[in-house]
Amino acid sequence: MQTISHTQTANYIGGQIQPSTSGRHLDVISPLTGQILSQVVLSNAADLDQAVKAAQAAYPSWSGLTLKERVQIIFRFRSLLEQHRSELIQLIHTENGKTPDEAAAEVDKGIELCEFACSLPQIVADQVQEVSRGVECRVSHKPLGVVAAIVPFNFPLMVPMWSVPNAIALGNCMILKPSEVVPLSAMRMGELLAQAGLPAGVFNIVNGDREIVEAICDHPQIQAVSFVGSTAIAKVVYKRSTANLKRCTALGGAKNHLIVLPDAAADMAASNIAASMSGCAGQRCMAASAMIAVGNSQHIIDKLCDEARKIQAGKNLGAVISAAAKARIERYITEAEQQGAKILVDGRNTFVEGKEGGFYVNPTIIDYVSPDMAVAKEEIFGPVIAIIRSNSIEEAVRIENNSPYGNAAAVFTQNGAWAKYVMENASAGMIGVNVGVPVPREPFSFGGWNESKFGAHDITGHSSIEFWTQLKKTTIKWNAEARTNWMS
Ligand code: NAD
After folding, report:
1. Architecture of the CATH domain 11-252
2. Ligand 1 centre distance from Cα of residue 228 (Å)
3. pLDDT tens for residues 170-193?
């Protein structure tokens, strides 16, 4: 395979770097400095068609291997991720702007996702039962064919890894559409899969924007689409691909509420909430975005402010993705201030010395926010937390329930009954008890509720096995003489 140049990022189709025929491209900009890293092609339907043909050509022999044979390549890929860990950390840090520590956590989580795929032969065994004497029913998981994954900018390696290892290990051939603002880590992933021995055409990358996403939703030979991104686009992709009779799971945006009770372990809660709201510069779908302070929780708010002030751009806080994102986040803060909310910690107008072209916002804490303000309701996707004061746990849960989203919710308390009340009544797919970022570890699956996810399946874990396969049910009369086959 050719070495990927950082001056041009093309497509990866059938084991080859392929230019796009569209003639369109986009600058890839490092959020750390504002410098141009590469130019990525913005592909069209003809490029996609080429990728689908390559995937279709690879499918018969790839799906004809046993699951145990296929995962040998994932084992080697996992080792390569470990060997290239430092280089991947640097790539993610540079193209996405998160800190090297956060990029390291991303690579490590990617490795864990590979480990789940490596364990599939232990999980995906056929079920067989003798249903009548001499007659067996067998259920087996079969791949779907050519499938696609469309991913966002905030985890350039890890979010692709939610879909790619499981989908291909289960026998599918895949087309990945990376985020056009961070295509470099995904291209490196393609190189490492090839180095691990993955046959050409099993994994393909088609770079681009809206045009290629719509082409994926419309392509008649693509059987299933996983999507991760904002709710507005998740709805478009879910509706368009299911209207074209594809299977789709589409993960959307989030507005995660933390309910903080006065009895919470104050130091732990404060550092956990500060880390949740500011990790990856708040650009995580699991980030704490609204905190509901129940009763007198002032001592926890004070400590949270102290913790947030220790987090500083250029030291232990990364950049936000673009100048437009910085402007959007600052607009939300200013609007809340104008509406009467109190800015306790202000992260606007942040610059990092020597990186004046980068896009930085320091942690921001906004108090006395009312539930109808935009900072309370909308996804900000920056290191900002809106504090809503509440008199009761019931009211706090009602506020959480009123959010159209439902990715994560968390409660901070030492009282088991209150924790249980929130666990049972919060309307979110992933719940934390004294955990600010309640991401389920493998093998438990990842996925929200409400407008944070469309489609029946979660994107990882056991749920993803059902998503990327179809069931074949076979009834076998081994002994032709058996007369106990009651159906015929
Ligand atoms: P985005 O929705 O803008 O983009 C996601 C993908 O959709 C990209 O590949 C992009 O090229 C494509 N896209 C963008 N506009 C499109 C359009 N008009 N038509 C068709 N395709 C389009 O999201 P983003 O800004 O890259 O990522 C941030 C969002 O992703 C946040 O809302 C965040 O909450 C969400 N996210 C959700 C999860 C989750 O698990 N629920 C995980 C990570 C990120």
Report:
1. 3-Layer(aba) Sandwich (3.40)
2. 6
3. 999 999 999 999 999 999 999 999
